[in-house]
Amino acid sequence: MEKWEIDFLRELVRLDTNSVEQKNYVECADIIRSRCEEVGLNVEVFDPRANGASQPNVVATLDVGAPRTVLLCTHYDVVPAGDEAAWTHPPFDLTIEGDRAFGRGTADDKSNVVASVSAAKELAKRGTSHVNLRLLISPNEEIGGAWGIDYLINGDPNVRGDFAIVVDSSPSYVSIGASGVIAGRITVKGTQGHAGYPHAFNNPIHLSVPLLNALLDYVDLRRKVTSALPAPPGSPFRTLWGRFSITMYHAGSKTNIIPGKAEISFDCRIVPEEDPEAVASDLEQYIRQNTTELGVDAETEFLAKGHGWSTDPDNPMVRVFHDAARETVDPEIALAADLGGNDGHYFTRVGIPTVCFGTIADDTNFHGIDEFVRLSDFDRVKAVLVRFAEMC
After folding, report:
1. In the chain, which end has fewer C-beta atoms inside a 10 angstrom radius, N or C?
2. Do 17 and 43 meet the contact criterion of CB atoms below 8 Å apart?
3. Side-by-side strand order, sheet with 180-189
4. How many other β-carbons are positioned within 10 Å of the β-carbon of residue 233?
């Protein structure tokens, strides 16, 4: 990793661009715009100013006069740092120790922003790219992408290309798909009252226990749903599979008060072949059937329904990208699909073949405490992007 790349990453990490507070977006986009212009890219900034807040999307182009254009998709928003006192390295001050660079967003996804810009810089310097590159560097990915890639693809900018690379994945395989997600909340209703008189009130915590057991049975049902797409290396199953997790439980405010409600939040991962509306309908029916049998008054609310996606592994540009990764990283690098979701579905839904690759190794604590990126993985990702553009 070159000094200017480290300096660029340090500038980005210093800014807390968490998607909850949505602060420092303008400052971060300005740094990215300046760095892109510095390396000779043509830059446009599209800002939908959603809900009165600035959401600047940086679109930087390397035009070599080629007949085809490849989109490189990254994002600069991050998840909150959480308990900063628990970090052994400051989350917003880049710390380098050996092959590791620590800080919030180093892996997901600011190192990938730098790698994309650096690859474009290298190709401009060499004059060896056989495709035009258009870098799409957005906010909003961590909360769905509505004012990020969704806006760039489906809104007024109407960005298009012949192929897309979501630079927001693992360096250990080339991703040709990703899971969809259904997120929601079940509210179990009871009656609030004095804990000294439990016989007089319906305790929603007690009522929710058998429902939680029924949801654990649903975990097993989802596990039996399988995809034709291979799972990432190291997964417990050969192909992508359905998953269901209970992720949050909220109830009560004081030890001597029986609460009036208990909330169970869940995350359901669907395989690319599934329709999120159909899965949500089946899940809602499953919950309704069990609450009826258990005599529980409950209400289900869906907070997100996101599509999975996939690309034909025999697509010619997918093959070229895979060849570039095999030549540059590992002759045995696999094609697989991501367990998580990403912005790839915005491209495939408008007919743009897509792959994913990036610096986010499984052990880099992305979304966790002491997030880091390996400098060697950064170099590999940059090298694959450069080699792909040269091989096209």
Report:
1. C
2. no
3. 243-251, 261-270, 180-189, 298-306
4. 13
Angle, CA of 327, 122 and 336, to the nearest 5°: 35
User: At residue 187, what are phi and psi to the nearest 5 degrees?
Assistant: -105, 115
Beta-bridge mates of residue 44: 59
225: burial class by Cβ within 10 Å (0-12, 13-18, 19+)? middle
Under the banding of pLDDT at 50, 70 and 90, the label for residue 145 is confident
CA distance 47 to 25: 11
Query: How far, CA to CA in Å, does 165 sit from each of 54, 175, 221?
Result: 26, 10, 33
| Rounded Cα gap, residues 359 and 172, in angstroms | 9
Q: Which CATH architecture has domain 3-178+309-391?
A: 3-Layer(aba) Sandwich (3.40)
Q: Where are the domains of the chain?
A: 3-178+309-391, 180-306
Report pLDDT for 342: 87
Sorting pLDDT into bands at 50, 70 and 90, what band is 176?
A: very high
Distance CA 59, CA 353 (A): 19
The gap between the terminal CA atoms of the chain, to the nearest Å, is 25
- For 26-55, what is each residue's pLDDT tens digit? 999 999 999 999 999 999 999 998 878 899
Residue 73 near residue 115, CB atoms below 8 Å: no
Q: What gap in Å lies between CA 62 and CA 134, rounded to an integer?
A: 6
Confidence of residue 281 (pLDDT cuts 50, 70, 90): very high
CATH of 180-306 given 3.30.70.360, 3.30.70.260, 3.40.50.410, 3.20.20.140: 3.30.70.360
Angle at 323 between CA 320 and CA 327, to 5 degrees: 140
Reply yes or no on whether the pLDDT at 295 is more than 80.
yes
Determine the pLDDT at residue 238: 96
The DSSP code for 227 is E
Burial class (CB in 10 A: 0-12, 13-18, 19+), 247: exposed
